[in-house]
Amino acid sequence: MDTTKRFRGITAPLWPIRYKPLPDELLSSWLVRLAHGHGLKVQTFCNLIFGNRLQVWNRDIDRLAPSWLVDTLALHTGTSLAAAYGTTLKVYDGILFHNPRPSGHLNWILSLKIYHRIREGFGQQFCPLCLAGDATPYFRKAWRLSLSTTCPWHRCMLRDRCHACGAAASFFRMDFGIEAGESDDETITVSRCHECTANLAAAPTMAPAVADADALEKLVEMASAVAGRSPPSQRVIDELAVLRHLCALMLSTRHSIALRQHLLAVHSLVDPIEPTAKRIPFESLDLATRHVLLQCGVWMLNDLGSRLGTAVRVGALRYNHLLRDFDGAPDWYRTMVGMAIPHRKGHPSRRLARA
Ligand SMILES: [Zn+2]
Ligand SMILES: [Zn+2]
To answer: 14, 131, 201, 268: least surrounded by Cβ within 10 Å?
Structure first.
């Protein structure tokens, strides 16, 4: 089919190819599949639909969920708006973060660090076995979460780069090097490395490193609850907020906070973070580091009152760190913090409020 014919089809109310989003599919993955389904390179497809003015690939469309893009895909594929917006990371508003800003840091959403299409971060994770098992390989929303380090189905570590060349996974770039006419929609899939064309679905898998078996189990449960079809319970949402706060405390560079060192020592683990490193947001840490810190954080959650008490007693943190910079801390957490500080037991809320 030549490009003129394809173009005619694409301006029709319903496109010739009307793929619907697959379960938990990311917007960018859906868009790439639609382009390839029409036998077009992603960039060509986007230029035909959106023109050159609206740039698709120099921004994190999964996070920003631009209405001009989502509404258009919904309209031309006959997909409900709810299902179309369900492909964006906005669905986690109120679950993983609150009142997202268009740019800057967002809790639990991995940073892609996009500079003019070149993704420098390793924020797009994947499970090779999920890709290998897909009739049509596609990328899931859960793989963009800093909370996700393992695949709950295959119980293996996720990957965040190509096993052959080490390039970050950025599936939208995979056909950028292919000349027009050269593309073959049967063979182009999102599971090829954009840099070396290695099949990411064939990447070797690793069993997760276990720092604490119970913590790892609960971590997988929490991540599964977030990725599930129905929204997680308020309890899970609250626990995620506390876990995220503990992760931030573990990364604090304040001299008075040594929570990470304390927790690593408890589990006889080596610090995965360079001692000279500047403070890095949790969402910019690499997969292996997050995997360790998350288990330490969930280990705290599993017996929060007593483990907070111990951490304060050994001087790993002070009581005021536990609520500082933690808007919307759950009531049960506030109560537990009060109880973890024996000499403040009488008036925890009054004293904590003052802190
Ligand atoms: Zn998997
Ligand atoms: Zn590669």
So the answer is: 268
